[in-house]
């Protein structure tokens, strides 16, 4: 039962679009380090958001609907944990920490200013973690993360015929943390810090028939995770997490795009960043897990991220969320565990420079298979 909290990670796989700007797709949990003995897992997730808005600007057709601009996407995770000794554990994880998929329906069918715009961000991270256990139930966590990222975008507004494609770059960050456990009551608290990672991209920017070879840097932000669980009665766990992400560190500023004056030639009024955030975020999750018998366990979890207000980017028109998740774990054999879950997300209303996005939501699902050996 004390491992039910780890199963909830399967639900987070499908909920990434509910995070800041729709860019975060991994919570960077260290839960795998606390699996018993040697352990391996593989997970798959999918999320299908429905995000649409109404034009409030003088561009395009006033009152025009944007159409659903957030296609569904899938994710993949892998983890391996090796118990090296009574004091040392090693884990390797693979995930997609950031990602985006934007596709506004064509302007000819919607009349929305961003009609026809599309963009994507892809990333893969490999993280090596170690844990050293002290005699007093305190343990120390450290690790190195290798992260590969790339992106592209195509717009007709505010720059007609603009596109940009980056190189694929791999750079490194680190993880440090501390944990405390009390096995008698299945209690655990883990606090970890994930460093920022800066990518230096080469890019090709195009405006109409003109192409420009440029370069710029983008920083994926630092974050702090607090993960906890404790038994509250026989076969029942209270579990949750608090995650802070320094999103004001993140921006995408291609130099040609940033320097264009939408009102005409001259230095006044450059567009600035293609993507940026004015606020950091704190995401809360709290739930209860219950073991029903030797084979079946279940859990329910609620999530919340505050609505910040203000203007958000046209490529990520969301602002906060509320969610509810349901998960079930089946102990198929003495060493194989199958976990499945679904998550409903009420995506927060948002205002962009050209539209209002209200009444949006999404559904996610995840499946994870874990093997102890």
TrEMBL record:
The coiled-coil regions, if any, are none
User: Do you know which Gene3D superfamilies this protein is assigned to?
Assistant: Outer membrane protein transport protein (OMPP1/FadL/TodX)
Q: What topology does it adopt in the membrane?
A: Multi-pass membrane protein
Could you tell me where this protein is found in the cell? Cell outer membrane
Give UniProt keywords alphabetically: Cell outer membrane, Membrane, Signal, Transmembrane, Transmembrane beta strand
Signal peptide start and end residues = 1-20
Q: Which residues cross the membrane?
A: none
Q: Which family does it belong to?
A: Belongs to the OmpP1/FadL family.
Full protein name: Aromatic hydrocarbon degradation protein
Q: Which organism is it from?
A: Thioclava electrotropha
């Amino acid at each position: 039962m004390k491992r039910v909290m780890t199963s909830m990670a399967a639900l987070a796989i499908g909920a990434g679009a509910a995070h800041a700007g729709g860019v975060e797709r991994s919570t960077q949990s260290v839960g795998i380090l606390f699996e018993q003995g040697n352990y391996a897992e593989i997970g798959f997730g999918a999320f299908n958001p429905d995000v649409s808005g109404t034009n409030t600007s003088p561009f395009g057709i006033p009152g025009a609907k944007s159409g659903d601009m957030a296609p569904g996407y899938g994710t993949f995770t892998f983890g391996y944990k090796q118990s090296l000794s009574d004091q040392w554990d090693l884990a390797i994880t693979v995930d997609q920490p950031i990602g985006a998929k934007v596709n506004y329906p064509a302007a000819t069918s919607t009349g929305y200013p961003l009609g026809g715009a599309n963009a994507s961000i892809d990333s893969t991270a490999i993280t090596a973690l170690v844990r050293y256990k002290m005699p007093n139930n305190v343990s120390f966590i450290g690790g190195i993360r290798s992260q590969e990222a790339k992106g592209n975008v195509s717009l007709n507004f505010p720059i007609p015929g603009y596109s940009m494609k980056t190189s694929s770059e791999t750079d490194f960050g680190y993880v440090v943390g501390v944990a405390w456990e009390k096995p008698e009551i299945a209690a655990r608290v883990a606090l970890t810090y994930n460093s920022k990672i800066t990518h230096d991209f080469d890019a090709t920017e195009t405006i109409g028939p003109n192409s420009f070879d440029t370069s710029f840097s983008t920083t994926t932000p630092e974050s702090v995770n607090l993960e906890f669980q404790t038994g509250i009665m026989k076969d029942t766990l209270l579990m949750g997490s608090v995650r802070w992400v320094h999103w004001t560190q993140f921006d995408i500023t291609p130099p040609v795009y940033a320097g264009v004056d939408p009102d005409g030639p001259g230095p006044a009024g450059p567009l600035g960043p293609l993507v940026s955030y004015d606020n950091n975020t704190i995401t809360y999750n709290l739930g209860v897990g219950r073991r029903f018998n030797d084979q079946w366990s279940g859990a329910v979890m609620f999530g919340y991220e505050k609505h910040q207000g203000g203007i958000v980017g046209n490529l990520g028109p969301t602002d906060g969320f509320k969610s509810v998740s349901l998960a079930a774990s089946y102990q198929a054999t003495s060493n194989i565990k199958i976990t499945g879950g679904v998550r409903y997300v009420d995506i927060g209303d948002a205002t962009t420079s050209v539209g209002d996005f209200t009444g949006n939501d999404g559904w996610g699902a995840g499946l994870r298979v874990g093997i102890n050996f």
